[in-house]
Please model this.
Amino acid sequence: MTAQSTEGLADPDIAPLPEGLRRASAGGTAKLALLVGALGVVYGDIGTSPIYALQTIFNPADPHPVPTNIANVYGVISLIFWSLVLIVTVFYVSLAMRADNDGEGGIMALITLIRRHSQGRGRKAGLILAALGIFGAALFLGDSMITPAISVLSAVEGLKTVNPDLETFIIPVTVVIIVMLFAFQRKGTAVIGRWFGPIMIVWFSTLAVLGIGGIARNPEILRALSPLYAIDFLFGHFSIAFFALAAVILTFTGAEALYADMGHFGRKPISRAWLFIVFPALLLNYMGQGALILEDTANIAGSFFLLAPEWARIPLLVLTGAATVIASQAVISGAFSVAAQASELGYLPRLRIAHTSEHHFGQIYVPWINWLLMVSVLTLVFAFRTSESLAFAYGMAVIGTIVIVTILFLYIARNRWGAPRWLLAVGGGLLLAINVLFLAASSTKIIHGAWLPLLIGVTAFTVMITWQRGREVVSAERERREGPLREFVDKMRRGEPKAAQVPGTGVFLGRGKDSAPLALRAALELNHARYAQTVVLSVQTEPVPRVPDEERIIVDDLGHCEDSVIHVTARFGYAETPDVPRALRLVRPEQSEGRKLRLDKAVYFLSTIQLKAGTEPTMATWRKHLFIATSHITSDAAEHFQLPRDRTVIVGSHIEV
Model:
């Protein structure tokens, strides 16, 4: 059991988008900075896929191996090229990134768009799709555990190409890098972020140069650009190609990052970086590796590092390590963002979130998620021990998220944009069919490791929907106990109950203007005291990243303009840290009886509750205990709302779920 703030269990409202939240266009220098930044953060994951993707596809230890021959090499390279074209270029860059929530992208943004649209109509479909989206977000958390493990492992495995005797050091070196990576998360990416872009420019340049060198040794590989090779491989050798698709997925891991990080860099910089830098570099490198494999099938093991001349392999190993750390950093930051947004939207408890940069708002650190990820990543490294083994598990999380994003996008395209049914049936149907085919192929790896991201996803999904349901139960019981706020204020005016007026300002945090906070009732009914200025404040999370100050505050005099009791709604975006004292300073004197709120010595009151499993059939017993256990990670309410510790009073109660 744990004491919980009532605000942490309050349902956030979904309100219409406020005006004035559009991003201003940047100048030429700023645009270049955004493009370089996008290279460092957005493309770390997909940019490191060449390290392990091809050797995984042709891995002889695979339960469904792809024979290494000329036809299959051409077919695989062609499949990779057209997968990157259709899934990344066409779907994500050209289509999905146009479905933004005030500039923010990713699966959580789609969920908020669907929730907002389904309020008036299609509520049942909206709830089903939102639940599907939550499962996609849960899969992304699984991806966030697997990516650092497979990325760092695959980079360190390059030691074998330098000296086979160094193989025994792979696991220890990997563990040290991972521990250091997570230990430095609390410092944020503000300090090292400026280095990410330049390093990744060097990385993608290296990919292109190595690829060109490989192609020069066997230019015939350029034939693979023709879709005929992909079609012939897929349909002419379906029994082989179908299983190969599960590994081809590895070539577009990180595609969701393009969409999820759109709010940090904007659609155009991300699109331009992909079209003019990342995509050409990846394509050249994959074709160079294909040419190397055609030259000698023994080059399959370590085909990426063997593209480099022997003298350059140690520098390449160092650069690869840096690139994989950046890739890991990007996906970890993505996990922080997803968890923070899920918390603000009511699918996870309120988490302690630290903003690590004064200049880049999206850079956050979530301690609980950080250490959970570190333990999970280390567990994966010790359990699987090689990048090839982890690759079996990797694809399921990636393609599962992509399939769900595709479904949510098609719903938005039809119901929000009014796209013609025939266009969705043809274009959307084709995209969905391709993604489902990849998903089906990945499902063949379930017994070989793909069960892992599914297990992680199901576990995270269960926690999220259980928390959401538990909050609904608690909110309903609290609403019954609190009673209507206006009715309570009317009684206060009549002197019921009798209470002595004390000087100063009392701020009582509650769930909304329809109910009286438990702390306010306790102050009057138990202490028989009321403040000269009484503010009932509710914090409302909007389905937008940020809310401007001019739209931050809504004041209601509760029907008695001459009275000293007002209700204030403080609106914050889901990407913001609520600062209640600062928000209250925005209340103008004319909104509070013509008197300025005296906040220097204001006392803040929080209601907390003790959760207990009851006998009412609100949820299954195991879900009740899961809800109570999950509540233990809830962050401190006073810290979350930036309340002064020395002037915060906590009033407790208990509720059975």
Q: What stands out?
A: The longest strand covers residues 529-542.
